[in-house]
Each structure stands twice: as structure tokens, then as C-alpha cells.
Amino acid sequence: MPGNALRYLTSLCAALLLGGCMALNTPEEASTFWELRMNNPPAANSPAAAGGLIVARVRAEANLDTTAMLYREADYEPRYYARSRWIDRPTRQLQTALIDGLEAAGTADVILRAPTQLSARYRLETELLALEHDYRGNTPHAVLRLRVQVLDQDQRSVLASRVISLREPMTASGPGAGVEAGNRALDEAIERIRTVIVQALADAE
Which of 35, 83, 176, 200 would bridge with 159, disulfide CB 3.0–4.6 Å? Predict the structure, then answer.
């Protein structure tokens, strides 16, 4: 009888431990992953520039070069969502979105992703300065801020340097609405970057 009781208690403990482990891994506790991507590519409305364009890797400070997703409820207090993350580092997703958008717009005759062994006359350098959901105020916003530079590698000169800052209203609170607003801001940012490049390359001719 004591042996049967011991086996019963052992089985009961194992079942409780298994149930606890399963509870820790319920879908409610799992992370949700989100994409930073272009939804509406800019239209091709200008001739492609000759000479090719290299899109460099996007730079960012360590707090932005991570899959953790930032939000802000008070000044000087950035925080990360507990269970919402980017599917890849925003810097990598931004580089892909820039290439796709600039190709769709016919910005240059050849667009290359850095690093590459191939050469091109022009180079786009981008730095991610801000990417967050801002809950200060009555309406939450997705914030996207980029510094872009267009370089002429043949002439070793900077053709253009701009800071592009966007605040897109969110339709609701929460990471999902923030990502949707952020992607709308990204569409606008790519259109503005295309305009900067086209104007800079035209002035360089």
C-alpha cells in the first residue's frame, strides 16, 4: 500500500509539473512578431539615373538595432513591449524596404545591396534615429526618423543630406496599430528619400 501511494503521489506531481510547463507556454504568453515593411511602393515617374546606386546597411544606436519594440508614455522613459518584437532587426528590414521601393520607382538603372563586390557611382547612407510608438498626448503616434545622405563615390562628395521625420497617427493603442502606422510612415519616408535622391543626382549631372 505505501508503495502504491508513493507511485500515485509521484504521478500526481509529474502531472502537475507538466501542466505548469504547458501553462507557461500558452499562446497568450508567447511573443508576437511584427514586420516593418513597405505597403505602397512609389510610382516610377522619373528617368532612372545612370551610374548605379548602392544602398548601404542602415545604421542605428544599440537601443534601436534590436528586435525589441520601443514605446514611450513619458518623456525620457523609453520602454520595450513585453511580448511584441520585430521579426528581424529594423535596420535590416529598412534596407530591404529601401531597395524594394527605390527599384519599384526606377530611381537608378542598377540598385545594389551593400555589402557588395560590385561598384556604383552613387551610394545611399541611412541612419535610423527613431522608431517608436508614442503614447504621450491624446492620440498615439508611430514615430519614424531617418538621416539620409546621397554620396558621389567617383567625386568623393556628399550630394545631399537630410533628416526625414514622420509622425503617423495610430488608429488605436497597442503594438499592432503602431506597426500599421509605422508602415504607413515608412511608405512616406521612402517616397521622400526617392525625391532627395532624384534631385541630388539631377544636380550632379
Answer: 200
**Where exactly are the structural domains of the chain?**
1-30, 32-204
The segments of the chain whose pLDDT lies below 50 read 1, 9, 12-27
Nearest to 60 by CA among 123, 134, 147, 132: 147
pLDDT of residue 112: 97
User: CB-based contacts of 185: which residues, under 8 Å, 6+ apart?
Assistant: 142, 143, 144, 166, 167, 168
Nearest-angstrom CA–CA distance, 167 and 184: 10
pTM: 0.84
Cell numbers for 52: 548605379
Report d(CA 53, CA 19) in Å as an integer: 56
CATH fold group of domain 32-204: Rossmann fold (3.40.50)
pLDDT at res. 20: 47
Distance CA 181, CA 167 (A): 9
8 Å CB contact between 183 and 36:
yes
Residue length of the chain:
205
Judge whether 102 and 194 are in contact, CB under 8 Å: yes
Instruction: Identify residue 111 by its one-letter amino acid code.
Output: I
